[in-house]
Design brief:
This protein is 33% helix and 29% strand. By secondary structure, it is α+β, with helices and mostly antiparallel strands. The strands form 2 sheets. Strands 2, 3, 4, 5, 6, 7, 8, 9 and 10 form a 9-stranded antiparallel β-sheet that branches. The chain has a 5-stranded antiparallel β-sheet with strand order 1-11-12-13-14. Helix 1 crosses helix 4 and helix 4 crosses helix 5. The longest helix has 14 residues. It is globular and about 50 Å long.
């Protein structure tokens, strides 16, 4: 649960009014607003700043520092927001499909929300994926220009986007502490994609905008464009104007000038 001050700060970031009547309509609106207002970013890893999975550290980063984060931070913050509004929500662990195989357990965090219509998965920390929660059933579902399908086997669900696997998860509720080991691995292992490049990405009304190292990538109505970022000042301004991130330029300079 969030304090009243934390709750109001969260709503301010999402540009939404308060509500304590949990519903699918409200959940849809909250997830969409989260994806449009809080960026998926790993800049702390690039800057050599340790990411803590302690509850208060996550909430301070999201609500006081005005930052985004990677999946563990964004989805845990969203979990706290949903709990505060009265949703029945639990943390789930997932394996991410990459390089033709599934990664380890706790590679990703997502949320299960129990609703009168049936349970759904909510996720505000997976980059370019579904914009609204998906029902946990075997029906085909369409969202954000893609077809999604969940298949069950051996007590786990596999999520497919346009016939390509994305995630594999089970419905066992997990504590935040269970994700700490993989969060540490993602911050320090040279095999983690989070240590290989700096990413800042956010959904827009008609696509997505991403800073991938020193390249600005925009996708609008399915059309992709790329533009190099040639200076630290330009990079700093893009973080502010495109992602509403106020990160000290001097802090960014060591990473920018070294890459």
């Amino acid at each position: 649960m969030l304090t009243p001050r934390q709750y109001q700060r969260y709503l301010t970031r999402l540009k939404m009014a308060a509500s304590h009547t949990p519903s699918l309509t409200r959940l849809n609106a909250l997830q969409l607003a989260h994806l449009h207002c809080l960026p998926f970013e790993n800049l702390d890893i690039a800057l050599g700043i340790a990411i803590s999975l302690e509850r208060q550290a996550i909430l301070k980063k999201l609500l006081e520092k005005g930052r985004g984060g990677f999946c563990y931070e964004l989805n845990y913050g969203f979990y706290c927001l949903l709990k505060t509004e009265g949703f029945n929500v639990t943390l789930l662990q997932a394996q991410v499909f990459s390089d033709d195989r599934f990664g380890p357990n706790f590679d990703h965090m997502l949320l299960k929300v129990a609703l009168p219509q049936g349970p759904v998965i909510a996720d505000v920390g997976f980059g370019d994926s579904f914009l609204k929660p998906l029902a946990i059933n075997t029906d085909k579902q369409r969202d954000n220009g893609h077809h999604y399908l969940l298949k069950a086997a051996a007590g786990r669900w596999t999520l497919y986007q346009d016939q390509t696997p994305q995630l594999r998860f089970d419905e066992t509720a997990q504590p935040l502490s269970a994700f700490s080991q993989m969060a540490h691995w993602h911050q320090h292992s040279p095999r983690s994609h989070f240590t290989q490049k700096a990413i800042c990405s956010m959904a827009t009304s008609n696509g997505r905008v991403t800073l991938s190292d020193k390249t600005l990538i925009k996708t609008q109505l399915g059309k992709r464009s790329e533009k190099p970022v040639n200076s630290l000042a330009q990079y700093h301004e893009l973080l502010n104007s495109r992602f509403s991130l106020a990160i000290d330029e001097a802090l960014l300079s060591r990473w920018f000038n070294a890459n």
